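Lab channel / #folding
Pinned by the channel admin:
"Please post every new chain as: sequence first, then the structure tokens as a reply. Keep commentary short and put observations after the output so the thread stays searchable."

First post following the new format, from NK:
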Amino acid sequence: MRSRGGGYGESLRRLCGSVLNNEPSGGLIELARLNKVLLHYLRVNGVNGAVRDSEEAKLRAVVKIVEEVRDALSGLNYAFFKLVKPVTYTPADVDVLVASSEVNEAALRLIRLGFRLMVVEPYTITLVKNGINVDLYTNPSVGNIVYLNGADLLGFKAMDHYHGLSIPTLTREAEVVVAAAHAVYKEWLITLNDYATVKTWISRGAVELCLRMKCSEALGLVLSIGESACSGLIEMPYRIKTPLVMALLANRALRFKPTASTIPMATRRLNDARLINLVTSKLSRLTY
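Reply from TO:
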């Protein structure tokens, strides 16, 4: 595990206190941004100014898009995911899980509302409006490798509130599974946003669901990295080292049939520039 000097560790401890316990602590804006908890941190600490105004405006724009998507997809089997969190943050995009039999209809409805089609992949359709991407997933995947079963997740739908909107989402237990699996299998990077979601919402039901969906390795890693980081022992965001990523993905393929069955499709893209850029970025970035 990578560590930094005492000053960095103390900053992480204070940021964890702000995010997990709403304890005021100044001077951590950049670290909060890297850990995808910037707006939560700004609100807890009563920070006003250009950065706060920008984040609040971005969130309002996301909420508007969420409302449009919710209304457009009424009657379909879908759920927003990785959107409702125990921390306030501005998502980079809006992720929607849609039944495979209805994903094309979902995309057509959004196109009629002025969303522009960007990318069509085996398990994802990406559209954009007003600079905000909406990703329609049939299965959560990375590089066409499925790491969670979308149909199984849609069996754990629930209604929740998102900044004044009532929307279909996943249950807290399922969101814990998604947060851990997404961080480890897709992003190869663990942020305080991920750890806060898992730590705050973990329950016996979440652990049992993770065992059923064969992602207990990912759950354990997010918890252990988060606890070490919030103790000031290692850095966060924490980029998972490449050998461990490969081992985790190999174990995932051995234990989870959808991952194993989609690897051959992914290998056919080894010379694809987009895939090469994706992997290169994951190996070098500080956050996502």
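NK: The two ends are 20 Å apart (CA to CA).
TO: also worth noting, Residues 6-284 form a domain with the Beta Polymerase; domain 2 fold (CATH 3.30.460.40).
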